[in-house]
Design brief:
The protein has about 550 residues and is of the alpha/beta class. The chain is built from 21 helices and 7 strands. It folds into 2 domains: about 260 residues, no CATH class; about 120 residues, 2-Layer Sandwich (Transcription Regulator spoIIAA), CATH 3.30.750. It is about 60% helix and about 5% strand. The longest helix is centred in the middle third of the chain and has 30 residues. The chain is elongated.
Length: about 550
Amino acid sequence: MSATASEGPAEERPASVAPGKAVDAKHRWLSDGLAGVSVALVAIPQSLAYADLAGLPPHHGLYASALPPLCAAFFASSPYLQTGPSALTALLSFAALSTLAPVGSAQFVALAALLALLVGVLRGVIGLLKGGAVSYMMSQPVLRGFATAAAVLIFASQLPKVLGVSVEGEGVMVRALAAFSDPSAWEVEALALAGGTLVLMLGGRRLHTLFPGVLVALLGGIAYTSLAGYEGAVVGEVPSTILPPFSLDLPWAQLPRLLVAGAIIALVGFSEAASVSQVFAEQSRRPWDPNREFISQGVANLAAGVAGGFPVGGSFSRSALNRAAGAQTRWAGAVTGVAVLACLPFAGLLARLPMAVLGAIVLGAVLKLLDPRPLMRFWKLSKLQALVGYATFGLTLWLAPHVEHAVLAGIALALGVHAWREQRFHVEAGLQDETLVLRPMGVVWFASAPLFRQALARELAAHPGARDVRIELGAVGRVDLTGALMLQEVVDRGAEVGLEVQLDDVPPHARRILGRVCAESVCEGAVGTGEGERESEAAKSEESAP
């Protein structure tokens, strides 16, 4: 977390080489080259599938996989993070755009590019303002609840393709149910192609980490269509170009309608990149900087928007492949982008790729997210937080395609639970001689300050013989400005009626705010020494004693 751009030497040091050992530049570039090309071979079919998931013609996935990883490499801090289309970001993009334009239309494509530009600006600004810590602001129950429900929606959206069924209806779940409930309409060839793709993807990993199951499935699907005369749904016409179609002729007037969705994608979509970078940083002992990663992801989205793509993010599966393939530095991502660019002139060969294969590629990518056990585990840890996760899960399914509203609702619930817990304030009280001792436990902030005043008044009434009050703050987690002002007023009002109020065991964080609030006030002399400071002073006194 403390890594900065000045830590270049640590960043460029391969994980397999001990610190301080010289690295052969030729070996490093060769490793990055092989890793980058390996990822590109997987990114090409995945990008087609994720573009279709986002509601765009599949070939726009190639545009989102070419320039974005190339541009991101110049600013990234993680040597392994691979940037490009991802299932979660694609779903969020579809949710944001599906009600603004016909899915797959030219207007939809233009809105997707505009959304990518917006996400790029927001992430870039967050990084430049060094606000990378905002990526940790979403609670785990909200993230897990949303991700699990999103996986269900993604799975449901691909089910008709895998079954080879064309269905009509409002809503992803409705269409999936309609397709699944009519086995007589299932297409045997589509099922076989999808099943073969899943076997290659999941079984290939068991054979070897670097087995290109997705690529083999892509080539196999095209070959089957060409040789066996497959008549099911295929990708269709794919333009072969040297470069992506650069353009800024976008529906800028629609920008205000994309602000909320863009902000959610900028933050929620970044959680995957942050998770990837953090995991690999811990495993390889190579630091990463969230601020730089926000900038790199911002630049990547700007490139995607200009090049006719859609919002992109960090991919866990491709980043894991990148690391397993021997990537040494962040330039492996640039190689991936160049490799995809080199394939654009031959993109027309993808026209005969069965849609069943693309659907299976998406299913294989989200299968792990369908595991309900991490979400169910919250019930054992914290029932209240579990309810937040379950509510986010249910709202995501219910509000689809407007899943961004479910994210906002989940965040609001999490903040509400946090505020409620912070307000749970307890005060222990007792009388020692003629001194009333109060020991507040919790957080002294604007919501709990009145509760403390009530407790003080109640205990003073219960102990009319008390001549002094000592407030021990050692068990207080935090004191905000309102809480400090309340404590100052308690001390000052006590002095006015002849009641001496002493603040004792003041922790350092509270001492700072109380010191400022109590300056030039009766309260200033009432702030006692913290327990640790008293022990330190006592030790010094013993050392100086004759």
